[in-house]
Amino acid sequence: MKPALSRRHFALALPSALLVSGCAAPHRGTGRPRDPIVLTLLSHYASGELKTALQGPVDEWNALHDRVKVQTKAVEFTDLLTTFMVRQAAGQGADILHPYCLWNGQLVQAGVLRPAPPEHAEEIRRGYGTAAVGSATVDGNVYGYPTEMQTYALYYNKRLLREAGVDRPPRTWRELEDAAYRTARRDGYGNALVQGFGLSTFDDSTTVGQTLALLNAAGGRFVSADGRRTAIDSPAGRAVFDLERRLVAKGASDPGVNVYNAFASGQVAMVISAGWWTANLKALMGKGYRDVGVAPVPLPEAGGRRATLSTGFMLGVNTASECPREAWEFLRWLNTEKVRGATRMSALQVSVGSLTGRADDMRTLLGAGGDPNLHPFLDALAYAVPEPNVPGAQQAKSLLRKNIEALWTGQQSVDEALRTTRRQVDQEVSLSW
Amino acid sequence: MVNATLAPEATERAARDRSAAGVRGRARHRRRQAVVAYLFLAPTLLFYAVFLLLPLGFALLLSMSRWAGFDLGDIEPVGLDNFAGLFADGSTFLAPILTNTLLFALGTVVLALAGSVLVATCIDKLRFQGLWRTLYFLPIVTTVVAVGNVWKYMYEPGGLVNGVLNTLGLGSVAFLQDPDTALPAVVVVQAWASVGSAILVLTAGLKSIPESYYEAAALDGAGAVTVFWRITLPLLRPSLLFVCITQFLTGLQSFALIIVMTRGGPGDATNVAALEMYRQAFSYGDWGAASAAAFVLFTVVLAVTLVQLWLFRRKGEDA
């Protein structure tokens, strides 16, 4: 009598079984009503205080809820988008995603993000500032709860300004230029000892972020309201590019320097950056941090309407999630339920030196005390312009960065830089739509 | 005896039968051997199919499709649009990206080859050759990130390189920030980092040159330069060919050092094809354009390699 499973069948069945088990979806519960559910949350809070800060409320949820548990998974920010792609393509996408809002258009277009159910969308629109809601919105639909919000403001070194005879931070571009030229110093070989205004090619936030903050302050926009074409080739865009080109040409800015290190070492008098930097500066500078001041981004003319750039992250639910209702419920608990006057997410963000788009929470948590340097960022939540998040926004940002660098290094004139940015970004954004 | 009395036809038939049986047996044996051989080869073939043929086929499919990288069901055929886009008016792929790629590879090969020939020849005449080879090989075992960051600090205004220039009374140069010097500055680092492996190959090549040639040249009164040009360099040609091809291929596909040192900037001054492909796929979610660029780069690599082989074969050398 032949055995039920011959050696040949076994040889075929074993690798197949291994393959199938290896490719199978992760354990998420049986899916039967009342059976336990495990939701996965993929973020970039991979190490240090960020990881601990997120794990706190997740552990609290898991302790309070018997049926629905949340499991966090984290990768470095640089790997986050790639991880979304690879896991989604392999059918292993997490239930809850924590994307940088710049990618929202790309993720929505690829069918990765699920629109927020009406009651959640309404709660988000009601509870958060305009910039935060704008970051989490694509084509009129809200896709998640805004989490970490960053606004841009002017960091300045009080000691360097004082030594140059400047007694208060600049409020207009004319004052900014004047202070930059007065504080800048170079040695006999042309090495920058002090940069007046820190323009830096270090990363996207130093190159594009500060340019867009100045552009918004001048009343300009990077892309049009409908998100289908660029709007930087405008009088406001020209004014920003002119200002930056002058600062580099007259030696007040040295784009090659790592501005994060240079400012902390007292080698940069002023720089535009986001709020998260305050925590880093405190740790880096120690007692020297008392020389650091923060002011709103200067305007082209005195008395103008304030504006700056805001960037952010949000928590959304994957279209592939088998338990979206539970996922949205967890997000509501994390982002809107108040404990001691503020939501868990706001408390989490403030604990790591960041902000959320909930101004009421921020005022409660920061109160009258705390670091006064955080207040200009908090005030900016009311007037900040969200970073564009249309499909192709990441590529548009990279193209803008390349052209800004070409402008700063003299490869392109202001006109050429504006024209090339418009042509390249329009082409890419139109393709993405 | 009985057999001897059989008719000759029967004997022949029996012989044919035996022969046919023998042929069948041998054929069966050969088939069995072939099956066994394929069974032994199966893991390798499977590996080859899964990790080379399958990705190659998928990349070819993607190069003629539009895909954002998230859902395999969303692959949308677009014909040759992705290739047309790479060479369309205003596209930066041909210039400066592909041009930078070729300049980067060519610069690396020229510098690394010249440096390694010089150093290998010197080492060949020194004591403690193993120690010298090890020292020159160290950059190979150092991670690209470390190499790139150290050189980045050395190039910075106020860094070691500018410090030397300043000591000599010269002004500072913004090596990585000036679009005219950024690519050559990165080429120097790539050549420095790859010179170790070239030295190993060339030292082995030098050892294989028979001593009798040098003795004959000495008897004829040939000088050191003549010996190098007439004996060492021609006999080193197989090793040079190997180094030249491998370094060029590495240069054409390399982007790790660039991403660490300049991220392709300023502007597109140091952007290369591999870096652009990476960005198109993983940052912008345009896998079609990335795959099309990969096939264009593959064609360039193939063409350059064939030209190199042809040039060396004209001189009578095989790879």
Explain what the structure shows:
The complex is a heterodimer of chains A (433) and B (319). Chain A has helices at residues 7-23, 48-64, 77-89, 104-109, 118-127, 130-135, 158-163, 173-183, 204-217, 235-249, 259-264, 277-285, 324-335, 344-351, 359-366, 375-380, 393-408, 414-432; strands at residues 37-43, 68-74, 96-97, 113-114, 137-138, 141-142, 144-157, 185-186, 192-197, 268-274, 292-295, 308-318, 338-339, 342-343, 355-356, 384-386. Chain A is α+β, with helices and mostly antiparallel strands. Chain A folds into 2 domains: 35-150 and 311-385, 3-Layer(aba) Sandwich (D-Maltodextrin-Binding Protein, domain 2), CATH 3.40.190.10; 152-309 and 391-432, Periplasmic binding protein-like II (D-Maltodextrin-Binding Protein, domain 2, 3-Layer(aba) Sandwich). The model of chain A is unreliable at 1-5 and 10-27 (pLDDT under 50). Chain B is mostly helical and 319 residues long. Chain B folds into 2 domains: 17-63; 81-314, MetI-like (MetI-like fold). The radius of gyration of chain B is 29 Å and the shape is flat. The chains are: A alpha+beta (433), B mainly alpha (319). At the A-B interface, helix 3, helix 4, helix 17 and helix 18 of A face helix 7 and helix 13 of B.
User: Beta-sheet strand percentage of chain B?
Assistant: under 5%
Query: Mean pLDDT of chain A, rounded to whole units?
Result: 88
Total number of β-strand segments of chain A?
16
Strand content of chain A: 15-25%
Count of discrete alpha- or pi-helical segments spanning 4 or more residues of chain B: 14
Biggest sheet statistics of chain B: 2 strands, antiparallel
Helix and strand content put the structural class of chain B at mainly alpha
**Distance between the terminal alpha carbons of chain A, to the nearest Å?**
65 Å
CATH level 3 topology of the largest domain in chain B: MetI-like fold
CATH superfamily of the largest domain in chain B: MetI-like
Rg value of chain A? 24 Å
Q: Output the structural class of chain A.
A: alpha+beta
Through-space gap between termini of chain B: 66 Å
For the largest beta-sheet of chain A, the strand count, sense and barrel status come to: 12 strands, mixed
Would you identify the regions of chain B where 5 or more consecutive residues have pLDDT less than 50?
A: none
Instruction: Kindly report the CATH topology of the largest domain in chain A.
Output: D-Maltodextrin-Binding Protein, domain 2
The parts of chain A where pLDDT drops under 50 for at least 5 residues are 1-5, 10-27
> In CATH terms, what is the architecture of the largest domain in chain A?
3-Layer(aba) Sandwich
CATH superfamily annotation of the largest domain in chain A: Periplasmic binding protein-like II
- Helix content, binned percent of chain B: over 70%
- Which shape of chain A, going by the Cα principal axes? globular
